[in-house]
Amino acid sequence: MQTLGDAEITGRSSLEHRVWPHKRYDEMYRRSLEDPERFWAEEARRLDWYETWDRVLQWQPPYASWFVGGKLNACYQCVDRHVKTWRKSKVAIYWEGELGETRVLSYSTLFREVNRFASALQKLGVEKGDRVALYLPMIPELPIFMLACARIGAVHTVIFSGFSAKAIADRLNDTQAKLIITADGAYRRGKILPLKGIADEAADLSPSVDKIIVVRRTGQPVPMTEKRDLELGSLLDEADKFVKPEPMESTHPLYILYTSGTTGKPKGVIHSTGGYLVYNHSAYKWVFNIKEESVYWCTADVGWVTGHSSIVYAPLSHGAAIVLYEGAPDYPAVDRWWDIIEKYGVTIFYTSPTAIRMFMRYGEEWPAKHDLSTLELLGSVGEPINPEAWQWFYKYIGGERCPIVDTWWQTETGGIMISPSPGIEPIPLKPGSATFPLPGIDAAVVSAEGEELPLGQKGYLVIRRPWPGMLPGIYGDPERYKESYWSRFPGVYYTGDFAIRDEDGYFWILGRADEVLKVAGHRLGTAELEDAAVSHPAVAEAAAAAKPDPVKGEAIVLFVTLKEGIAPSDTIKKELVAQLRKSIGPVATPEEIYFTRSLPKTRSGKIMRRILKAIAMGQEIGDVTTLEDEASVEEVKKAHEALKEAIEGAGGKAAR
Ligand code: WTA
Which residue minimizes the CA distance to atom 5 of ligand 1? Predict the structure, then answer.
C-alpha cells in the first residue's frame, strides 16, 4: 500500500499485467506511482514559476489541488519564455486560411500580438478571474485571445463556432461572461457562417454580456450595436505594447470548457493553471516526442479540449511550430489536408478516426498525389479507431514508416492519459489499442462492483488516483462534479467508458458506458438531444440513441412520441431536425427519426437504451449483459417486441 497526499492507495499497478518489459517506460511508470509527489514535482520544475509550491498535492477526495502555493502564468510559459531565447525568430504558428491565404507568426510576433490583445482587454476593464467567451473561427486571433486572457488572469471559455445561439447563451449564462469575442463571419466550405449575427442572438438571451469585440475575417458588413460592440482594430490602435503577465495561483482556473454529460445541461469543466500546464507539458513530450525541428499539426477545432491542450497550451509551452488550418478538410478538393502536410513539411500529424474514415472513402489516390515523406509520427483521438482505419492511416498517410499514437483522454482529464509514449520508449503497437497509461496515471478496468477485472473481461475504465491535469470541478456545480465522476465507484475517478485489457495487458477503449454519444468525435448527451426534441410543441417524449456509422463512428437516432391527437408527418420530422440544429447545432442533426406510441422503460422509469439501440440497428436483442439496464432478460425481450409494435402503430420509421 502506498500513500498519496492524504489518501491511501490500494489495488494493483497496471504494470503487473505486462508481458513485454519496456525498460524506460516501466521504470518511469513505477517511479511515478511509488512516489507521485516527487515525480510530479520533478516534472513541474520544467516550467517557470514565480513562486514554487508549498505542497505538490492536497488531496481531499474528490478534490485535488496541485502545486498549492505556487504561482505561474500560462501565457508566459507559452510565449515569453521562448522570446528570451533563439526561439524568438522560430515559427510559432503557420496559419492556413480556407481560401488559401497564409499567415506565419514567429514567437516574437506572437509575443507582440498577445501583449496588444491583453492590453485591449485590460483597457475594457477585464480583470483577473473575469470570464471571457470566445466564439471565433480557426484564425490566429483565437489562440492569441486565449493567451491574452491567460496573461491577465481572465478565464476564457471557448465556444465551438458550430454551436447555435441557444447553445452559446447557455454557456454565457452559466459563466456569467461579460464579454464575447467573435468575428464578422467564418468561412466554411466557401460559404460564410454569420458568427456575429449568431453572437448577437446569443447576447440577447444573456443579460451578463455588455461588450462584444468583433474580429474582422470575412470583411462583410455586420450590424454593430453602439456602446456594446467594438472593432478589434480600433481597440488595438489604443493598446499598449506590453502587459506584465499576472502571477497566477497554481489552482486558479485557466479556463472553463463545456462538454456534454448525462443531463440536458452541458458541464462547465474547469481546468487549473499549474496542474493542467505541468500535466500537458509532460504528456505532450512523452506522446509526441516533440523535437525542436518538428512541425506539428493537430486538426481538431480549438473549440474542443483537444484544441485547447493539443493545439495551444502543450505545443506552445514547448516552443513548437504548429499548423493551424481554418477550413473544411475536403475543401476545395479532397486532398486539401495532404496538400497542407506537403506545403508545411508537417512531421507530426494528429487527427480523428472520423476524418481518417472519411478520407479512406475518398481513396488513397488523393494522398498519393502528395509528398508526405516529412511525416514521422501520426496520432488519433476522440473515438475508438477501428483497425481498418488504423491500417489505412499507417499505410497511406504514414507510408508504413510512422508509428501511430492512439491517445485516449477526455475534456475532464485535461491531457492525454492512455497512449503509446514514443517520447519515453517505443513499444509494439496494436491497431485499435491505446496501449498503456502514461506515467502517473493509475488506470484500471473494474466490474460493476468496482473490483478490478482479470485480463480479457470488459468493464468500466477508472483512474484510481488524482493526476495534475484532472479537472478540479464543474463550474458552479460541486454536486454534479461529485455525482458524475466520484459516486459510481467511491474514491475513484469514473471515466464513463467501457474498456478491456487483452492478454498482454494492453488497454482497448470500447466506447461510452453512459448516456453520451460520440458523433464524428463530438460529444453529445442523449438528455441534451431529448431536451431539444421535447421543446417542439408536438412532442410528448423523446429518447435518443446511437447507431454505428461507418464514417462518423456513431449517428443519432431519435425516438419520438407525439402528443395525443397529433399524427406523425414529414413536416414534424423536418421541424424536429431544425429544432435540434437550432438548440445545439448542426452536429446534433439526427440520422433517423422513429415515431412510436411509447418508449421502453424499466420499473424505475429509466429508458431501456439497449432496446432503442437494437431497433436502430435493426437487430434482435442479443447478449444481455449485467453491465447495462436493471431489467430481466424476459422484460427486455417483451419491451423490445412492444416497442416494435408501438413504432408500427405510430406510422413506422421516418428516415431523414
Ligand atoms: C472517447 C476528447 C477511444 C471516449 C479528447 C472518451 C476515445 C471521450 C479516445 C471523451 C480513444 C477519446 N479511443 N475512445 N483514443 N479518445 N475517446 O471529452 O469515449 O470530447 O470518454 O475528449 O471520447 O471525449 P472528449
Answer: 410
